[in-house]
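Minutes, structural biology subgroup

Action item carried over from last meeting: produce the C-alpha cell record for Glutamate dehydrogenase (Streptomyces actuosus). EB confirmed the sequence was re-checked against the source entry. Recorded below for completeness.
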Amino acid sequence: MDEWGPEKVVCVSDRRTGMRGVLVLDNTARGMGKGGTRMSPDLRVLEVARLARAMTWKWAAVDLFHGGAKAGILGDPNSPDKERILRAFARALSNEVPGEYVFGLDMGLNETDAAIFLDELGDRGAAVGLPRALGGLPYDELGVTGYGVAEATDAAAQSIGMTVAGARVALQGFGAVGLATARRLAELGAVVVAVSTARGAVLDPDGLNIPRLAELRAVHGDDCVLEYGGAVDTDTVLTADADILIPAAREDVIDKDRAGTTSVRLIVEGANLPTTPAARDVLHQRGIALVPDFIANAGGIVAAAHSMDARYSPFTVDPDDVFPMISTKMRANAATVLAESARHDVPAHYAAQLLAQERVREAMRLRGQYNPGR
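Output recorded by EB:
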C-alpha cells in the first residue's frame, strides 16, 4: 500500500465450486471503482492489484470520473464449470457489487459472462459489456479498445514525424483488441507484417491478409495462425522487422534486453503493462517513442463510461456517440504525452503518470484524503 491505495482488497472463495477470486479497489477519489474482470489459470493477487492501479491512472488520464479497480478469478476460462464459478464469484462479492464495483470484461470473459453476473445478482447495474440483446454495448464485437489503440498509434506516429500509411506494423496478440487494431490500421493504410497468438506467429514482409486472418480466427480462434500457414514461434513477432510494435497480449513481454535490441521507432501498448520499468528507461534512452498502456488502450473505458451511465436506462448506447469520443481522446492524449515526454526528457510512462496523478491528487485533496505531511 502507498499514498494512492489500494483502499480495499477482497479475496473470496467457494468450497462447492472451487472458485477463488479477488477484487481490488485501488483509488476511488474520482468516483466508484470500475475496471475489467479477468479469468486465468495463473492469476495472482499482485497481478490484479497492478492492473487496478493502472485503471486508476487510466480513468484520470482520459479525465472520466470513475476510480481504479480490477477483479480476477483463478481458473480456466474454457472450463465446463465456468458458469457455476462465475455465479459463485458474483454471490461472494454481492456486498461490493454494484455499490462499490461493477463487473466488466477482461481476458477470459465475454459478453455472455457479463450477462451471467447480471442474472446472478438480479441487478441491471451489476455489469457492463452486456450483449446487445440485453441492452448492452458489445465492446468486443465493436472492437472499441482496438480502434482506440489504432487511433493512438496514428496520432503518435504523426507526433514523431512518421505516417501510418505504409508503415510496417508488428502486432502481438490477435484477440478482440489485436483484431480490431489490425483492421483499423489497415484502413489507415498501415502494412501489418507480423501477427501472433498464443499458438504461434505469422510474418510476411509484404503484408499479411488481415481479412483472411480474421475469418480464420472466427472459426479456429488462436489456431488461426496455424491455419494461415507458415507459423513460427510466438515471440518472433517481438523481433520482427517493423516500424511500429504493438504488444496487445500479456504483461512484461518487453524487458530491457528486448528494449535494447528492437529496431522499431514506435511502441504502442495495446495490452496492460507489456513493458517492464527497466525496458521503458532503455527505450527512452534509445529515442524510441512509447505510448503507455493507460493512454493507448483506454478506448474500452470510454465505451465503459457510456455503458455505466446507461445501466438503468431503457435506451441503448449509440455506438455513433462512442467512436468519435474514443478517437478524440486517444489522439489528443497520445500526442500530449509524447510532447510532455520530449519536453521534460522523461519516459512517456512517467509523463503520463504525472498528468494522471495530479488529477487524482486534486480529488483526494478536495475530499480531505491527501495529507502531504504524513
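Discussion: The CA atoms of residues 86 and 213 lie 31 Å apart.
Next step: EB to file the record with the rest of the batch.
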